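Regression test attached.
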Amino acid sequence: MGMRVLVVDDSGFMRKRIIEELREQGHSIVGEARSGAEAVEMYRTLRPDLVTMDITMRDKDGITAAKEILGEDPEASILFLTILQEEKYRIEAEKLGAKGFINKTDHQSISKFIQEMDRKS
Amino acid sequence: MAPEKRKVSPFSSGSDAASFSGKRLSTRNSQGLLRRLLIFFCLLGLIAVGVNVKILLDTNAEIHRHMETGPKEAAKQTIGAAPDSVATLQAVRTRIAVLLGTIVVCFGFILYFFVKRVVLPLNRVTKITQDMSRGNLSVSALRNPHGDVGELGAALNDLAANFQEVLLLLGTTVGKSSIAVESIEKALEKDGEVSRDEVRKHLEDLRKDLLLLRSLVQDFDFYQTHFDGQKVVSDNIGRES
């Protein structure tokens, strides 16, 4: 079926890698945001099925952006993709109601997770 | 007095001094260009104002001559001058004064916006680029990437984010690989039989890390070289295209 995904990452090459991976799986990319502020704005207009969210970004970090998105739409599906593997961020993500927290280099886990989400939806 | 310590970049090469002097040169060049542009603008403005002031003064003098000697006498004294009345000359003087005022105001606005929208952001981007090239990736080019230099600032932010991402991935991968190597060493140091499965598991982790690093490097394009998956290969260096 494929999901409509909004990719949020401040690194252009990392967005490219994530997008390629998602497209290979048959998902469509509805938007790319390079900061937390852009992500919130784009979510309001695009209403994607899934948001892949980086944590460390310049003007507004991923946790803050996710809080705002989930504050406006508690049904939003947010998947944190990050290099930060500290437990405190994982706990914070869980508390927020994010769908997952995966190392962005672990492509297998990302694919498996999104396929699972797609099947459930 | 102790010499001031300069922060040494982890990215600087042996030709550090040369690269730093190159940076100083480029800053001087960009600042010199900005200064030249500002001088050019000021000169243009001064010429426009000067011409107007000259015309204004001439007209004023003509009016005074008319008032002192009478229009007919003034027309005789001024070669080729039309026998304009004092009222007409005064109207011309008013128009020139208004024109002069308009030029001064416009020039002020242009100068203000040029400095605000181009000179100051460009100076900031130049300074931040220098900081980034010295290894400080935490600096942000522009918080609000709009305006004339906004796109440049946004591209610079993206570049720094890419670099940061690669370095953090590199650090994470090296950290994981070190743990795997230590575990293999410990397994080999154990008395008695070596657990093949344990070693195989750690080797598999190492292989994954190396594959990640390889795919990461292959995602980039390089000048004059490329990474073929195992080594760096040059692309026709010294040959004409």
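Expected vs. actual: identical. The interface with chain B takes residues 9-14, 16-17, 34, 56-59, 83, 85, 105 of chain A (CB under 8 Å).
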